[in-house]
Amino acid sequence: MKKFFLSLIGLVMLFASTLYAQDVTGTWQGTLDVGSGKSLRIVLKVSKAADGTLKAVNYSIDQGGQPIPVSSITLQGTAFNFAASMIGGKYEGKLSPDGNSIVGTWSQGPNPLPLNFAKATPATTWTIPEPPPEIPPMAADASPEFEVATIKPSNPDTQGRGFRVRGREFTTINTTLSSLLTFAYGLHPKQIVGAPAWVDTDKFDITAQPDAPGRPNDKQWKAMLQKLLTDRFQLTFHHDKKELAVYVLEVAKSGSKLTKSQGDPNGLPGMFFRGLGNLPAANATMQDFAGLLQSAVLDKPVVDQTGLSGRFDFTLNWTPDESQFVGLGVKVPPPSDKPDAPPGLFTAVQEQLGLKLEATKAPVDVIVIDKVEKPSAN
Predict the structure, then answer these.
(1) How many other β-carbons are positioned within 10 Å of the β-carbon of residue 243?
(2) 222 within 8 A of 183, measured Cβ to Cβ
(3) CB 29 within 8 Å of CB 120
(4) Which of 35, 296, 53, 331 is nearest to 281 (CA)?
(5) Do residues 140 and 158 make contact, with C-beta atoms less than 8 angstroms apart?
(6) Over the stretch 339-366, which tens digit does the pLDDT of each residue have?
(7) What pTM was estimated for this model as a whole?
(8) In the chain, helix, strand, coil percent, each to 5?
(9) Which string of DSSP letters, residue by residue, matches 110-133?
(10) Which fold does the domain 21-119 belong to in CATH?
(11) Contact 280/315 with Cβ under 8 angstroms?
(12) Where are the domains of the chain?
């Protein structure tokens, strides 16, 4: 009887070992319901690296055929998890006993959405669309202008505000001249002096394309916008220095926790909020990060004194307070009382990125508006 009991234990252990050592390599696919009657088909291709660890690439095929790198992927027992830090997303699921399905949730913000995967067969595999052809970079010494540019008052019913670059097209939505200046010159609104009131209230939509071939880099896009403001808004100004209350961005004593980006060192940064207090960043410099904090989140200029060069990928999660996101015209809801709510911004920056924000006063560059007019007709 004892031998039988031991044999039974061995069979159970063998069964458990088989259950927890499922092979998850292959193609998985599922549909993500994003609300308002819209859904996205998601494809996950899992394989093994040379050292035997898992690796994967993710696709949202209804949003184009561009691969989305998976930054981490694990299978522990039946717990199957992966993350895509470039877009600030993470998946938490449970593998079925037969190894053919995964039930779980996808998160790109505070509210997880159900996402269940099924293992695809050659007959059921969805076709991943071919991505658009790669546009070669514009010559680094090129000094382009916008060849075609339309500027029109924004529709007051349009929600949100932002800048977007897609290929060779530059667009803005619901942008004031103040926000255009902060983007083009890397300023906080408090660094703009002597502007008429309409600069902060009148909103415009812009669509423009460059006059030189190739894909502009970040500096070239901003230089083109500077020329457009001069031409169409008749903008002239001069520089001055003024002591202002600022935040200084520095490396914390614990040291930086940032991950060097493998993206194009001359490419554009990817920093798009996935909800208030959820910021995935890809291919971003510290100047890019400081610029976004001062233009969209904080009420003071942010001065980069980290001394960190190069580009980084990271995700920052925090619980914002009512003083933040005023630049986006957003009213922050009351703080969550959930025990697992993210910390405040200043704590999150230190704990998650190894940086710190210190409030101080410092002389900073300001632009003094000499002349500006509402934009000329298209």
Answers:
(1) 9
(2) yes
(3) yes
(4) 296
(5) no
(6) 888 999 999 999 999 999 999 998 999 9
(7) 0.64
(8) 20, 40, 40
(9) SS-EE--EEE--TTTPPPPPPPPP
(10) Lipocalin (2.40.128)
(11) yes
(12) 21-119, 146-371
